[in-house]
Design brief:
Blueprint: E1 36-37, E2 41-44, E3 52-55, H1 68-83, E4 92-96, H2 102-110, E5 115-120, H3 125-134, E6 143-147, E7 163-167, H4 176-186, E8 194-200, H5 205-210, E9 214-218, H6 226-232, E10 235-242
Parallel strand pairs: 4-5, 4-7, 5-6, 7-8
Antiparallel strand pairs: 1-2, 2-3, 8-10, 9-10
Helix pairs in contact: 1-2
The structure holds S-adenosylmethionine (SAM).
S-adenosylmethionine is lined by residues 27, 61-63, 66-67, 69-70, 97-100, 102, 120-121, 124, 149-150, 167-169, 171, 175, 178.
């Protein structure tokens, strides 16, 4: 089954950065959905934790379905956790543009001592919370669901995270400076914040903005063979470092 996000009526062409809303046509998966479709729920297999159960809902936009970048990041975190079980112990972790909540949920399941914030725009908070509940990570667990609109002051989420996660957040040009601002806010100069950034090759202009504040490197220590598979889908996994 291929799940197609509902498009906005005024979305225009996928390259029209002046459109009032992002166009989701350019984002619609061209592959079969990689998770196992159930009636209204999908399961994402991440080695080391129970399958992540996800309700999807294309109503709130592209974040309402799970994208391959999020699966790639979840599986990388799980692989790293197997190699270095202490890596995330006690960490404060913030996921940006979480959508269904997949990466945040997987991370909270992997490391119960970490405090994980899965964040997105207000319209996705209910879906993220529903998925947190579905995976037995209700309010009061180590997974916190919150609204965080890029570029806005960070109020509901810890301002200085140890780890920041962002999967498939580069697609709508007017949001690029907002995303860079939020990355800067969460990773202040002088703090050694780890930022993992999975992105699908779409827009190049973002990188010119990002490089004023961050350097980056390709994550090369993923599970053997994994990188070859996801780069064929146009996905890359990077680690960003705040410039001094
Ligand atoms: C392509 S989806 C990726 C969702 C999820 N990370 C995944 O990999 O499945 C992009 C996400 O970025 C979020 N997003 C876009 N603009 C945003 C903004 N200005 N503030 C916060 N989140 C935003 C969307 O709501 C959406 O959930």
């Amino acid at each position: 089954m291929t799940i197609q996000p509902r498009s906005r009526s005024n979305s225009g062409s996928s390259d029209d950065s002046n459109a009032a809303f992002p166009s989701f046509e350019a984002l619609a998966p061209t592959r079969e959905f990689t998770t196992t479709p159930l009636t209204a729920e999908n399961r994402v297999v991440v080695k080391g934790i129970p399958d992540v159960r996800l309700k999807v809902d294309a109503g709130p936009g592209c974040g309402g379905i799970a994208w391959l970048s999020g699966e790639v990041m979840s599986r990388y975190l799980a692989y790293r956790h197997r190699l270095e079980p202490h890596h995330l112990v006690g960490k404060t972790i913030v996921e940006l543009g979480s959508g269904t909540g997949l990466v945040g949920i997987a991370t909270a399941m992997l490391e119960p001592t970490a405090e994980v914030w899965a964040t997105d725009q207000d319209c996705l908070v209910d879906l993220m919370q529903a998925n947190a509940d579905l995976n037995l990570l209700p309010v009061g667990s180590n997974l916190h669901i919150g609204e965080l609109s890029w570029g806005e002051p960070i109020t509901h989420v810890p301002a200085a995270a140890d780890v920041v996660l962002a999967a498939d957040c580069v697609y709508f040009e007017p949001a690029f400076p907002l995303l860079v601002q939020t990355l800067c806010d969460l990773a202040p100069v002088g703090k050694d914040t780890e930022i993992l950034f999975a992105w699908k090759k779409r827009r190049k202009r973002f990188w010119a903005m990002l490089k004023k504040h961050f350097d980056w490197e390709v994550v090369m220590d993923d599970e053997p063979g994994a990188r070859e598979v996801y780069t064929r889908e146009g996905i890359n996994l990077l680690r960003l470092h705040r410039r001094r």
